[in-house]
Hints:
The chain contains eleven helices and twelve strands. By secondary structure, it is an alpha/beta fold. The chain folds into two domains: 14-111, CBS-domain; 114-274, Alpha-Beta Plaits. The protein has a six-stranded mixed beta sheet with strand order 7-9-10-8-11-12, sandwiched between helices. A three-stranded antiparallel beta sheet has the order 1-2-3. The protein has a three-stranded mixed beta sheet with strand order 4-5-6. α6 crosses α11. The radius of gyration is 24 Å and the shape is elongated.
Amino acid sequence: MTREVYTINPFCSVLSAQNILESNKIGGLPVVEDKKVIGIITSFDVRRSHPNRLVFDAMTKNPITISENENIIYALKMLKDNNIERLPVVNQHNELIGIITKGVLLMEAGKRIDLLTGLQRSQTIVFNTAKILLENNDDIVCLFFDLNEFGIFNKKHGHIVGDEIIQKIGEILKTFIETDRLCRFGGDEFVAIIPSNLENGKKLARDIISYITSDNYLKDLDVSLSIGISGGRRNCVRYDEKEITKDINNLINLASLVSTKAKSLKLDFAVADELRIV
Length: 278
């Protein structure tokens, strides 16, 4: 976000707002009183208002704002749902601390979000999970989803259909797992890291496999996946973020190995504690 924000008092004139907008080549101004955002005035508002009117009369009141702690996906959704181009960013006291535009959000999303599925990239989920684990001492489960023989599938059906399958699997996983716990890890691989135990992880795997095998479109194309599960209870809380991130990466790697083993044994899923990985 941009922290140096041009703002205007509600009792200034529309002409003053116009001058600020034009001289700084920006499309909107938060209207601020006592550090609180009470409105927003855009170039469109200026064009349809008399220059001597007060900003208070011309602005959009009760504007949509976003907390500094919200994520990029939620911010983009707010912009889309409300058909707006910018969001004032506020702190816990509802005081303006910055502004974020659609262009900046899309640029950042490209770095952190897989554009085919709309899911996080792997680096993002590792960081976010590490942060959460610093604050909690929960059981943690990693599920590694790997589509079976997807290279052969692409050669048979083409990469356009392959991309459609990747998107569909991503959508299915979103119905079972919160998006902030889920990522597209590689070409045909997905990872979920959830605060839960191994039994719940196995139940989740069964439910996802059942859903996929009952989908007629996927069934006709003979699409299936193998799931590797790893995890368990953390014995203590660590406050070293590097150590936590290392633990998460090891957990993902173990689940990956288990999914490969499950694939070779023709299993829908397998659990690290229940297999010998060689």
